[in-house]
Amino acid sequence: MRRLFFLALLPLILWADAHIFVYHRFGDSEHTSTNTSITTLRSQFEYLKENGYKVVSLQTVHDAISNNKPVSDRWVALNIDDGYKSFYENGLPLFKEYGYPFTLFVYVEATDKRYGDFMSWEQIRDVQQYGEIGLHSYAHPHLVSLSEEAIIKDTQTAIDSFQKALGYPPRFYAYPYGEYDAKVRKIITSFGFDLILNQNSGALLEQSDPHDLDRIALTGENLLARKLRIKTLPTKWITPQIWPKNSILKTIHAKIPIEISSVEYFVSGKSWKRIKVENGVVNETLNLKLTRSRTRLFLKTGNRQSSLILVRE
Ligand SMILES: [Zn+2]
Q1: How far is ligand 1, taken at its centre, from the CA of residue 95, in Å?
Q2: Ligand 1 centre and the CA of 81: distance in Å?
Q3: pLDDT tens digits, one per residue of 46-88
């Protein structure tokens, strides 16, 4: 959400908020935290159909935001991370039945080395008749804790293998575990991907940064209707951008160029608190000791929100 940055304050109106959702496993009850049952998937697909949502490809999203064309409130893009066999066996038939496009983000090493739970390249070649294939790193590492050299090596190895197996280079990249910071983002962006996707809970606007798109996880119980109500709070986060020194979060400093006088903020493991916004700026001293090595920060007003993830190196 870093490209959103306007000079004047704007009234709280106008933007269409599209959504990108991410799934992992399908009809695989052994892995409940990453699974979506087929009953749930069917009820979600029915909900989208009955409520006039249009399931679009990431190519459509890319064409709109890179040309400043309108994004519809009714657009939903569906992503599947990792490339588990259960997508091929249980999920794909339903996507085909509804004719819904999707993007499958491949964890390349798992496919290359034929790890038991994952799809083969042959299956992925079959899948690409119905959807897009993107990159989800080579070794599925925690990128924030890697050196610059190691991040480059993982990404280049993944691109080379992908290209060899599918005959074209990947254009979309999703961070493993949704974890990144300013350094990771800069390196991954330097590979020239058209879209880079995180896993921060937020919506998509036509002004969204194509190299920092929010995706909402959709596993477990059926929360689709609730998650479709999430809208974007246009926010330029100034600090923090990386894990703070000594794990002390000193301040939250952000620009929110809309006409509001306060927002609520939330830090993982703490409770929601209200803070003031003055002339589109939040600048609050917190001095909070972060106790979780992965900490999410949220700013929200009503159903508009912006979030980021901080990862300890
Ligand atoms: Zn993953």
Answers
A1: 20
A2: 5
A3: 999 999 999 999 999 999 999 988 899 999 999 999 999 999 9
